[in-house]
Design goal:
heterodimer; A: mainly beta; 4-stranded antiparallel sheet; 2 helices; B: 693 residues; mainly beta; Maltoporin, Chain A; 5-stranded mixed sheet; 4% helix; globular
Amino acid sequence: MEKHIYLLFSLFSAILFHVAFTGCMEWDYGETEEFNATGTGLFITNEGNFQYGNATLSYYDPSTDEVQNEVFFRANGYKLGDVAQSMTIYDNKGWVVVNNSHVIFAIDLETFKEVGRIENLTSPRYIHFLSDEKAYVTQLWDNRIFIVNPKTYSITGYIEVPDMTMESGSTEQMVQYGRYVYCNCWSYQNRIIKIDTETDRVVGELKIGIQPTSLVMDRYNRMWTITDGGYEGSPYGHEAPSLYCIDAETFSVERQFKFRFGDWPSEVQLNGTRDTLYWINNDIWRMDVTATRIPVRPFLEYRDTKYYGLTVNPANGEVYVADAIDYQQQGVIYRYSPQGKLIDQFYVGIIPGAFCWK
Amino acid sequence: MGQISKSHTKPLPLLIALTAIILIMACPLTSFGQRTHRLGEVVVTAKRPMKEIGVQKTSIDSAMLKENIALSMADILTFNSSIFVKSYGRATLSTVAFRGTSPSHTQVTWNGMKINSPMLGMTDFSTIPSYFIDNATLLHGTSSVNETGGGLGGLVKLGTAPDVAEGLNLQYVQGIGSFKTFDEFARISYGSDKWHASTRAVYSSSPNDYKYINHDKKVNIYDDNHNIIGQYHPEERNRSGAYKDLHILQEIYYSNLKGDRFGLNAWYIDSNRELPMLTTDYGEETDFENRQREHTFRSILSWNHSRSRWRTGVKGGYIHTWMAYDYKREVGNGIMATMTRSRSNVNTLYGQFEGEFTPSRRWFFTANVSAHQHFVKSKDKNIILQDGDKAIVGYDKARLELSASASAKWQPTDRIGLSAVVRGEMSGDKWAPAIPAFFIDGVVSRKGNVMLKASVSRNYRFPTLNDLYFLPGGNPDLKNEHGISYDAGASFEFGKAGVYSFGGSATWFDSYIDDWIIWLPTTKGFFSPRNIKKVHAYGIEIKANLGLQPKKGWFLDLNGSYSWTPSINEGEKMSPADRSVGKQLPYVPRNSASLTGRLSWQSWSFLYKWCWYSERFTMSSNDYTITGHLPQYFMSNISLEKGLAFKPLDISLKFAVNNLFDEDYLSVLSRPMPGINFEFFIGITQKIPLRKK
């Protein structure tokens, strides 16, 4: 028996010896790939899971129906970061705003390689370019809009937003009309602010419904925003959400379209000619910007899932809808014709939230 | 029961080889080692307690609990059990999960009182110093129903014990380690026939700024025109990871030596921890402050009354937790503006009555009623209202949780045991359906103590207060999570007094959990919990231990565990494109193992600890994208101790090496872990015996 025990001990020891000296985590990192994405295409920023640093960037070529995922990582050999919020193209560069990494990466639009970065932002959401040397960056949890120099990738100043604290700070999407930039204030806010780009000061505000989520400018220089109405139990209030049409010249509400109490509309988008409005409210809705009533029927009906992102191809009016599925796996993008026919679908990264057309 | 006492002289080449390897590895350390170490008793049990009929449990060796003062229960469980410990970094949130379930499915009790956060449902094991725990037992799956409800995965049962040596005993241990880590432990205890008293304190602090290669980032090298001409992965320090933790534990026990014992346990925690920045964070460390502070006081008064055939116990307790989370940003001139200011106050009143009755040697009955009354105030965000006034986003709720159980245990013969437990649970004004559990075991062979066990139970878990009421996102319409579990296994244990002991077990388990609660983002930018998943978790747990005394003065103890844990999402598709159905749950390793080997020679002791977690998916669809999975990792720690006996003091010296092979690893995405690091401990113990009357 003792002999067997010692044999057993030998086995234990052999296992111990083997495992002790063979353990090693194998990193996938370091390799880079060469891309050459010429022509038009669609970037998809995939937020990833908050605090997990797994945001990614996807690129889709509508002419070939080919999608390339994790292109930032594959081109550069390191991660995009935590919560990719938005992407804007300016000066032939893609500017990817990575919210919880406190950074904006500028990338080459064909190779996806980084060409520069703006660091140490508070919680960046969107970037709006005024010139080669000036851009605004909106923030969450900050009552300031950051002024940056895209040429030197540096922070050059701040715009203080009145009646806003750091804790309830929220500035979001920006559109421009002449010398003024307009910005919707979202989280526990109810207003659109007006910024004079020559003085970098907030010179006006327009109070609307609770929590305006997005902002676009149509071909008639009217801004469109959609509120989410807050949530049940919120001390800030809970109301029926609305779609607002705001005249940029007079900075006043021209029309208000009320939704049902409990609806969760989001993601106002325009087509390429900026005469047709799209948004998500369970289904996908489409409306002419001159319409006076919300259509009776949606453009695309609900498909047993929560749609998370939306864009329209400015070249041909095709509609792309993002489905985050369970928010823990690769989301899927559905591509529809302007007539609402499904053309293609492809998987991207976790929580595809925003699009950017090249 | 036998204790190794005889010597064994048969040489064994591999033993010598292994010893040589160990000594070579320890060679630079030997001059430090000075602490006496005693190998724990090797127990061979012929008759098991009625209370444990059919129970699947893992008892953590008391020597492992007292291995060193720097360890938390998360560290102990990593290397001494097969359950999954998910660590967000050194001295950072660490949760444990049994059998492919989630951390909130693990119930945790301290001296009988539940210490799971009523807000979150889970327990942070990194805030439980192992030196404060005298008994730690894991009750796997169904077995947890014997003690509490809601343990869909199992129960971690922690306790202190009145086992204090007679007389006045003083102990002080100082640890100094890498990253300017300082650990201090002091204990003063007094024991007599009737009274036992003990005061323990632990203080740990460190900037915790360990270096690591950041694979998630590259630093750019620019030319004069700001063109990138080169990039490299930087060597960074763990940023914003400092901690200062103070724990004080006071215990007083009185026994009248006639079967009555009174006890007081009071545990105070003052924790101040920064939350480390992610590897993907491009913010300046000095411009952000991300800090969590906690003051917790837990106390229990107990009375146990024992007679030959029956025992009763009454407990009353109180928990107070104040938790603060602050996220600040520098806004110029060194002014730190608050971005997030969360405060929570939790007060819990606890009461319990339990009784045991043994009418004959074949029957054993138990009954237990416990109540936890929670009062929770959560203030999460200051906002400016539309009219310019200010308000706080949060909730203020109270909830009563009742749990009552009765069990009957029967041994129709010496070889067979049967146990039936029924438990009722109430939370708020909602009752869960009755929770039944059945256990059976039988001794197949007395030679080798070969025993078969099996059990089955239903179980329920109520949503936490955050699940129901958190603003924004709380969902008061959530249903209970509920499940059914089975397990069956075999164990054996044999040995020869003074020579060896060998034991092991293998258990198969199978459980289904419905209405699994997960928090999902909404289009409004916040998360909200929903009853979503149906999970089928099954697998095998294997444990083995071997004790040897090869020569006089030599002791060797090996313990190993292995767990195979498929945990499969079997719910409905959340969308037509959903690819998660039929896949392993994220962050649940399919395989995990741990091994400890302790070699002692006279007053020297060498300990080797090893653990392995297989690849973990980070996506529910188990995609092999670059960020979609975390590679497997192995971890090895060693320590060498030497004890010196002087009069009137005993001195112990210990040198520990963590992450021996300087593994570059992650437990969670974007959370850096430390490479090889060292700590040296010196302990002084003084015993002042009682004067003889």
